[in-house]
Amino acid sequence: MGVRGNIFLRIIVGVGQVSLALLMVWLCRYFIDVAIRGTSSEVLVTTICELVLVVAGNIALRQLYFYMTIRATAYQSNAVRLRIFGHLLRRRIYDDAPLHSGDITSRLETDVSAISEAVAGTLPQLVVTTAKLTGAFVLLYSMDRQLAWMLLLSTPFLVVMGKLFAFRLRTMTHDVRQQDSRIQMLVQEGMEHNAMLRVMESGSWLTSQLDGMQQGLLSKIERRTRFTLAARTVMAVCFGFGYLLAFVWGGLQLRDGVITFGVMTAFLQLVAQIQHPILDLLNMVPQLIHASASVDRLEELEGKDAEQEMLHTRLLTDRLGVSVKGVSYRYQQDKRQVLREFSHDFLPGSRTALMGETGAGKTTLFRMMLALITPQEGGIEVYDSQEWVPVASETRRNFVFVPQGNTLMSGTVRYNLQLACPQATEEEMRHVLHVAVADFVFDLPQGLDTPCGERGMGFSEGQAQRIAIARGLLRPGGVLLLDEISASLDEQTERELFTRLFAAYADKTIILITHRSTVAQLCDAVVRIPRLSD
């Protein structure tokens, strides 16, 4: 059952609870009046049995409602998080303003939870509570019209007050969430760069920074709490005097013989069933405001441009060429021109080394080939002997990309390899590990199922890099883009790596970025990209 079906059924269950609660009021009134009149034992026993059944039914419905609420909230959280995560994986990485992973993590946890609780929990409860308020008012109105209207006199005042403090509460909640995200960002970066911080002896200073940020968060929470408490106090005063009004009014009518003791008991029960729903409704307002602030924060993530899902174009042969024609590119963030009218034809089956200073645009050229960014001028085409296809996101499958450095994720070696090709067989994994000079994996006690920590923790930098190379090689494609893949390897391992790589992929076009002349000498051609002046 989906969330909508769950909500609809839960509203029915909630209305059933309301009906039983009102029936309980009526039976209590009847029981007291019957007992005082000295009715037969048979009637008393029947009434008691009815009361027991109503109580049992109410308990059963309450537990069912609770179970369905938890299930719907978890389902909704999963659905929202999955949608946002999928969007983030497709967003344009380099053309948009960068997003901090700590901030994203905070939003995917705190804000997703707030929205899910509001949609799956608060909104259905709002309908049920409204039904409870309406039913209690109707039943009280049937007993005493004057008292029913007097109890509702405070409602307009409370509604106006709720609207007045809603905007301020929304702003305060947004500030709290933003501060919490900043704390998450600091903690995450502190753990990621733990070793560096220890070497620089920055731990105490960074801890003091965290303490200051947490004090700021505490101050914002206290401010919001004081504001909420003030509003709740005014509401409590209104409810307290409303209950006192019902008690005095009922006592006077009981003294004058206008009502019975059973009716007096019903008065007091119905007052609670009118006031509590109003209080619940007003308590739901902050929850919905918190959720609306979370919606704004998640919409910031979904507002980022994303690539459209599409079928990927795969040329029929693996012997492909890449034609770069007069491409120019300038990043929006720093406004610096990286490439200007660069052209080169990477012939099918060739091995080309890209060399140049840091910042010359070598990695930018790779990003263009992978359609992660689009050149402002010129274009790139991938071709075989029969077809030329402009590079776009749907042609990405023609490329195999191995990025620079350690890019392993927490899991196992097998899991990291499956990121590139989920359906890869163990034989295929063994092959690419051999090509990447990562045969050491099979000497480990758990082999492919050896645990891998965050960023390859548990392996040396060189081992992690070789596993990452093997992962990239599992991807199908006729063009291999290799970005400084041997930076962490010794000279002997590096030479063995490229010997195996060139032999295993003799028909593929290989374009590699390197700063090492020994690697460049192994290639057919060397293309030097000059660094443009600012």
Explained architecture:
- The protein is of the alpha/beta class and 534 residues long.
- The protein has 14 helices and 11 strands.
- The chain has helices at 3-37, 41-90, 101-143, 145-152, 155-192, 194-199, 203-255, 261-302, 362-369, 413-418, 426-435, 461-473, 491-504, 517-520; strands at residues 321-330, 337-346, 351-355, 377-383, 388-390, 399-402, 411-412, 451-452, 479-483, 509-513, 525-528.
- The strands form 3 sheets. A 5-stranded parallel beta sheet has the order 6-9-10-3-11.
- A hairpin with a 4-residue loop joins strand 4 and strand 5.
- The longest helix is centred in the middle third of the chain and has 53 residues, at 203-255.
- The protein is elongated and about 110 Å long.
- The two termini are 59 Å apart.
- Residues 308-312 have low confidence and may be disordered.
The 3D shape can be described as elongated
Low-confidence stretches: 308-312
The overall average pLDDT, rounded, is 79
In terms of quaternary structure, what is this? single chain
Number of strands: 11
Order of helices and strands: HHHHHHHHEEEHEEEEHHEHEHEHE
Q: Indicate the proportion of strand residues.
A: 5-15%
Main sheet summary: 5 strands, parallel
Strand order of the largest sheet: 6-9-10-3-11
Portion in helices = 55-70%
Q: Helix count?
A: 14
**Class per helix and strand makeup:** alpha/beta
Rg (C-alpha, Å):
34 Å
- CA(first)-CA(last) distance: 59 Å
